[in-house]
Amino acid sequence: xxxxxxxxxxxxxxxxxxxxxxxxxxxxxxxxxxxxxxxxxxxxxxxxxxxxxxxxxxxxxxxxxxxxxxxxxxxxxxxxxxxxxxxxxxxxxxxxxxxxxxxxxxxxxxxxxxxxxxxxxxxxxxxxxxxxxxxxxxxxxxxxxxxxxxxxxxxxxxxxxxxxxxxxxxxxxxxxxxxxxxxxxxxxxxxxxxxxxxxxxxxxxxxxxxxxxxxxxxxxxxxxxxxxxxxxxxxxxxxxxxxxxxxxxxxxxxxxxxxxxxxxxxxxxxxxxxxxxxxxxxxxxxxxxxxxxxxxxxxxxxxxxxxxxxxxxxxxxxxxxxxxxxxxxx
Length: 330
Fold this sequence. Notes:
Elements: H1 10-27, H2 33-58, H3 66-83, H4 94-120, H5 126-144, H6 164-182, H7 185-195, H8 197-202, H9 207-233, H10 243-256, H11 261-277, H12 285-299, H13 316-323
Helix pairs in contact: 1-6, 2-6, 2-9, 2-10, 2-11, 3-4, 3-5, 3-9, 4-9, 7-9, 10-11, 10-12
């Protein structure tokens, strides 16, 4: 379903702004180095948070291995640009090769996510959390033992290609794609699975196929976020993608709100800014942020915008349906 109504030009306008900023930023840097780093980090976190929200929020499962897909995307894209020369495939336009490397990173994560989903979606709840945690540990251990990608030392020499405008465009495309997805027939199916899987099956929803597809899409965008991260930091090693990284993404999801893409944007932004503000506290930052997650689970378990979206964000058909007598989401 495409964007309609008075907001139908919102996504094209945002993309146009992003491309204009990208061109301008290549000639005249628009912000200083620190602000550029923070803005880029916010955009990457929005992609990671929104993609995990598809599984944990809209589908109602509990995955804790999203950093594993982030690692696969980061390493796959880094291999493409550093070892396979994707950045030089179009002379004078490294961004074209970077887009190809970024999509390759997402594709690798999606393929692995597909295999994991086939094995894991015979279970749910706590068992799925254990399986995805084991998957994260397997990915981290495997990368530590592959010398072709640096082993535990990691990979150096990654080009810095993730500028704020590039990440802005990627984040807008991600939110737009996921928004159209969750308000489609498929989105209704995964929401029905969240509410009652047995009832969804009785109504004709092919629950296993829906869960696998949602997991693969989530993994793809997680890999894209990892690719952008690798080309922002310019150095990656397996220790970067540990359970702490997955916990941070979970915190963003539950801070902004489960089942809410605007909540994902809010949660990623607040978490990133708060992390930067708490930097002077040193190790105490790692105490305060998990404590925030505990307080959220106690007092607002669905997050700030849990299960809610602003009216302008929804497609026109959804807004009209909500205004009819007895309308709204089922």
